[in-house]
Amino acid sequence: MPRNKYPEETVQKILDASLRLFLEKGYEETTVLDIVNELEGLTRGAFYHHFKSKEEVLDALGTKLFWDNNPFEKVMAEKELTGLEKIKKVIKLSLQNEDQQKVGVMSISLLENPRILAEFMESNQTIAAKLFEKLFQEAIDDGSIKDIKYPKALPSLFTLLLNVWLPPAIFPGSKAEVLERLYLMKDILDSIGVPVIDDETLGYAKKTLETILTE
Protein backbone atom coordinates (compact mmCIF):
# COMPACT_ATOMS: atom_id res chain seq x y z
CA MET A 1 0.00 0.00 0.00
CA PRO A 2 1.46 3.43 -0.88
CA ARG A 3 2.43 5.66 2.02
CA ASN A 4 0.15 8.61 2.71
CA LYS A 5 2.02 11.67 1.47
CA TYR A 6 -0.23 14.06 3.40
CA PRO A 7 -0.74 12.72 6.95
CA GLU A 8 -1.67 16.17 8.29
CA GLU A 9 -4.47 16.37 5.74
CA THR A 10 -5.80 12.99 6.83
CA VAL A 11 -5.75 14.04 10.49
CA GLN A 12 -7.62 17.23 9.58
CA LYS A 13 -10.28 15.25 7.71
CA ILE A 14 -10.69 12.84 10.64
CA LEU A 15 -11.10 15.73 13.08
CA ASP A 16 -13.56 17.59 10.84
CA ALA A 17 -15.69 14.47 10.31
CA SER A 18 -15.57 13.60 14.01
CA LEU A 19 -16.71 17.09 15.00
CA ARG A 20 -19.68 16.88 12.64
CA LEU A 21 -20.69 13.49 14.01
CA PHE A 22 -20.14 14.39 17.66
CA LEU A 23 -22.34 17.47 17.29
CA GLU A 24 -25.03 15.67 15.26
CA LYS A 25 -25.19 12.29 17.02
CA GLY A 26 -23.44 12.95 20.29
CA TYR A 27 -20.05 11.70 21.41
CA GLU A 28 -21.25 8.52 23.12
CA GLU A 29 -23.40 7.51 20.14
CA THR A 30 -20.62 8.01 17.59
CA THR A 31 -18.34 5.04 16.89
CA VAL A 32 -14.96 4.80 15.20
CA LEU A 33 -16.74 3.00 12.35
CA ASP A 34 -19.09 5.98 11.96
CA ILE A 35 -16.05 8.25 11.60
CA VAL A 36 -14.40 5.89 9.10
CA ASN A 37 -17.61 5.64 7.05
CA GLU A 38 -17.90 9.43 6.99
CA LEU A 39 -14.66 9.67 5.02
CA GLU A 40 -14.54 7.94 1.66
CA GLY A 41 -11.35 5.92 1.25
CA LEU A 42 -10.43 5.94 4.94
CA THR A 43 -9.88 2.55 6.56
CA ARG A 44 -9.91 1.59 10.22
CA GLY A 45 -6.20 0.96 9.91
CA ALA A 46 -5.65 4.52 8.66
CA PHE A 47 -7.73 5.88 11.55
CA TYR A 48 -5.76 3.94 14.15
CA HIS A 49 -2.49 5.01 12.52
CA HIS A 50 -3.28 8.56 13.63
CA PHE A 51 -5.45 8.05 16.72
CA LYS A 52 -5.43 5.22 19.24
CA SER A 53 -9.06 5.76 20.21
CA LYS A 54 -12.16 7.92 19.88
CA GLU A 55 -11.10 9.54 23.18
CA GLU A 56 -7.86 10.76 21.59
CA VAL A 57 -9.88 12.30 18.76
CA LEU A 58 -12.04 14.24 21.21
CA ASP A 59 -8.99 15.41 23.13
CA ALA A 60 -7.34 16.58 19.89
CA LEU A 61 -10.55 18.36 18.84
CA GLY A 62 -10.58 20.47 21.99
CA THR A 63 -7.04 21.63 21.28
CA LYS A 64 -7.78 22.25 17.60
CA LEU A 65 -10.88 24.32 18.28
CA PHE A 66 -8.95 26.56 20.65
CA TRP A 67 -6.02 27.23 18.30
CA ASP A 68 -8.23 27.59 15.22
CA ASN A 69 -10.10 30.39 16.99
CA ASN A 70 -7.39 31.62 19.36
CA PRO A 71 -9.03 34.58 21.15
CA PHE A 72 -5.68 35.81 22.51
CA GLU A 73 -4.31 36.23 19.01
CA LYS A 74 -7.39 38.18 17.98
CA VAL A 75 -7.32 40.66 20.87
CA MET A 76 -3.56 41.23 20.73
CA ALA A 77 -4.04 42.81 17.32
CA GLU A 78 -6.59 45.34 18.67
CA LYS A 79 -4.27 48.12 19.76
CA GLU A 80 -7.11 50.48 20.68
CA LEU A 81 -8.23 48.24 23.56
CA THR A 82 -6.85 48.50 27.08
CA GLY A 83 -5.45 45.44 28.80
CA LEU A 84 -8.64 45.07 30.85
CA GLU A 85 -10.80 45.31 27.73
CA LYS A 86 -8.67 42.64 26.05
CA ILE A 87 -9.13 40.24 28.97
CA LYS A 88 -12.89 40.80 28.85
CA LYS A 89 -12.95 40.18 25.10
CA VAL A 90 -10.97 36.93 25.41
CA ILE A 91 -13.60 35.62 27.83
CA LYS A 92 -16.48 36.71 25.58
CA LEU A 93 -14.93 35.20 22.45
CA SER A 94 -14.40 31.91 24.28
CA LEU A 95 -18.03 31.87 25.42
CA GLN A 96 -19.22 32.61 21.88
CA ASN A 97 -17.42 29.54 20.49
CA GLU A 98 -20.34 27.13 20.84
CA ASP A 99 -18.60 24.17 19.21
CA GLN A 100 -15.71 24.47 21.66
CA GLN A 101 -18.10 24.68 24.61
CA LYS A 102 -20.03 21.60 23.45
CA VAL A 103 -16.85 19.60 22.89
CA GLY A 104 -15.75 20.67 26.36
CA VAL A 105 -18.89 19.17 27.88
CA MET A 106 -18.37 15.97 25.87
CA SER A 107 -14.86 15.78 27.29
CA ILE A 108 -16.05 15.27 30.88
CA SER A 109 -15.47 11.53 30.68
CA LEU A 110 -11.91 12.02 29.41
CA LEU A 111 -10.89 13.63 32.67
CA GLU A 112 -11.32 10.28 34.39
CA ASN A 113 -8.12 9.35 32.56
CA PRO A 114 -5.26 10.48 34.84
CA ARG A 115 -2.94 11.14 31.90
CA ILE A 116 -5.41 13.40 30.09
CA LEU A 117 -6.31 15.20 33.31
CA ALA A 118 -2.62 15.79 34.08
CA GLU A 119 -2.01 17.10 30.55
CA PHE A 120 -5.00 19.42 30.83
CA MET A 121 -3.84 20.85 34.16
CA GLU A 122 -0.32 21.32 32.82
CA SER A 123 -1.48 23.11 29.66
CA ASN A 124 -3.78 25.26 31.78
CA GLN A 125 -0.79 26.70 33.62
CA THR A 126 1.93 26.53 30.97
CA ILE A 127 -0.16 27.88 28.09
CA ALA A 128 -3.40 29.57 29.20
CA ALA A 129 -2.00 31.20 32.35
CA LYS A 130 1.01 32.51 30.42
CA LEU A 131 -1.25 34.03 27.76
CA PHE A 132 -3.37 35.71 30.43
CA GLU A 133 -0.23 36.88 32.23
CA LYS A 134 0.69 39.03 29.24
CA LEU A 135 -2.76 40.66 29.20
CA PHE A 136 -2.83 41.24 32.94
CA GLN A 137 0.60 42.85 32.79
CA GLU A 138 -0.59 45.06 29.95
CA ALA A 139 -3.64 46.06 32.03
CA ILE A 140 -1.42 46.90 35.00
CA ASP A 141 0.99 48.88 32.81
CA ASP A 142 -1.76 50.92 31.12
CA GLY A 143 -3.60 51.51 34.42
CA SER A 144 -6.85 49.80 33.43
CA ILE A 145 -6.27 47.49 36.43
CA LYS A 146 -4.85 49.16 39.53
CA ASP A 147 -3.47 48.27 42.95
CA ILE A 148 -2.89 44.57 42.33
CA LYS A 149 -1.13 43.17 45.38
CA TYR A 150 -0.04 39.86 43.83
CA PRO A 151 0.41 40.42 40.07
CA LYS A 152 2.43 37.23 39.49
CA ALA A 153 -0.07 34.94 41.22
CA LEU A 154 -3.15 36.60 39.70
CA PRO A 155 -3.02 35.03 36.17
CA SER A 156 -2.54 31.56 37.62
CA LEU A 157 -5.50 31.89 40.00
CA PHE A 158 -7.67 33.52 37.35
CA THR A 159 -6.97 30.72 34.86
CA LEU A 160 -7.77 28.04 37.44
CA LEU A 161 -11.10 29.70 38.21
CA LEU A 162 -11.99 30.32 34.57
CA ASN A 163 -10.79 27.11 32.92
CA VAL A 164 -10.93 24.54 35.71
CA TRP A 165 -13.40 25.50 38.43
CA LEU A 166 -16.05 27.24 36.33
CA PRO A 167 -16.62 24.94 33.29
CA PRO A 168 -19.19 22.15 33.72
CA ALA A 169 -16.83 19.98 31.66
CA ILE A 170 -14.46 19.92 34.65
CA PHE A 171 -16.80 20.37 37.61
CA PRO A 172 -20.21 19.09 36.47
CA GLY A 173 -23.24 21.03 37.63
CA SER A 174 -26.66 22.29 36.63
CA LYS A 175 -27.14 25.64 34.94
CA ALA A 176 -28.09 27.17 38.29
CA GLU A 177 -24.99 25.76 39.98
CA VAL A 178 -22.63 26.90 37.25
CA LEU A 179 -24.19 30.37 37.26
CA GLU A 180 -23.71 30.56 41.01
CA ARG A 181 -20.03 29.75 40.52
CA LEU A 182 -19.83 32.47 37.87
CA TYR A 183 -21.40 35.10 40.15
CA LEU A 184 -19.08 34.08 42.99
CA MET A 185 -16.08 34.32 40.67
CA LYS A 186 -17.25 37.81 39.62
CA ASP A 187 -17.53 38.91 43.26
CA ILE A 188 -14.07 37.54 44.10
CA LEU A 189 -12.45 39.31 41.14
CA ASP A 190 -14.34 42.57 41.74
CA SER A 191 -13.22 42.56 45.38
CA ILE A 192 -9.54 42.49 44.39
CA GLY A 193 -9.91 45.17 41.72
CA VAL A 194 -10.15 42.94 38.64
CA PRO A 195 -13.61 43.68 37.13
CA VAL A 196 -13.30 41.43 34.07
CA ILE A 197 -16.78 39.88 34.29
CA ASP A 198 -19.37 42.49 33.30
CA ASP A 199 -23.08 42.28 32.47
CA GLU A 200 -22.36 41.53 28.81
CA THR A 201 -20.13 38.61 29.79
CA LEU A 202 -22.80 37.30 32.14
CA GLY A 203 -25.28 37.45 29.27
CA TYR A 204 -22.98 35.43 27.00
CA ALA A 205 -22.39 32.92 29.79
CA LYS A 206 -26.12 32.40 30.34
CA LYS A 207 -26.69 31.93 26.61
CA THR A 208 -23.85 29.41 26.44
CA LEU A 209 -25.25 27.45 29.38
CA GLU A 210 -28.64 27.29 27.70
CA THR A 211 -26.93 25.74 24.68
CA ILE A 212 -24.68 23.19 26.37
CA LEU A 213 -26.68 22.21 29.48
CA THR A 214 -30.24 20.91 29.55
CA GLU A 215 -30.92 21.26 33.28
Automatic annotation (TrEMBL):
Chain ranges of the HTH tetR-type domain: 8-69
Domain of life: Bacteria
Matches recorded under Gene3D superfamilies: Tetracycline Repressor, domain 2
DNA-binding region: 32-51
PANTHER family: ACREF/ENVCD OPERON REPRESSOR-RELATED (PTHR43479), ACREF_ENVCD OPERON REPRESSOR-RELATED (PTHR43479:SF11)
Alphabetical UniProt keywords: DNA-binding
SUPFAM superfamilies assigned to the protein according to its UniProt record, in alphabetical order: Homeodomain-like
Keyword DNA-binding set for record: yes
Source organism (scientific name): Candidatus Enterococcus moelleringii
Official protein name in the record: TetR/AcrR family transcriptional regulator
InterPro entries: Homeodomain-like_sf, HTH-type_Tx_Regulator, HTH_TetR
Entry keyword DNA-binding: yes
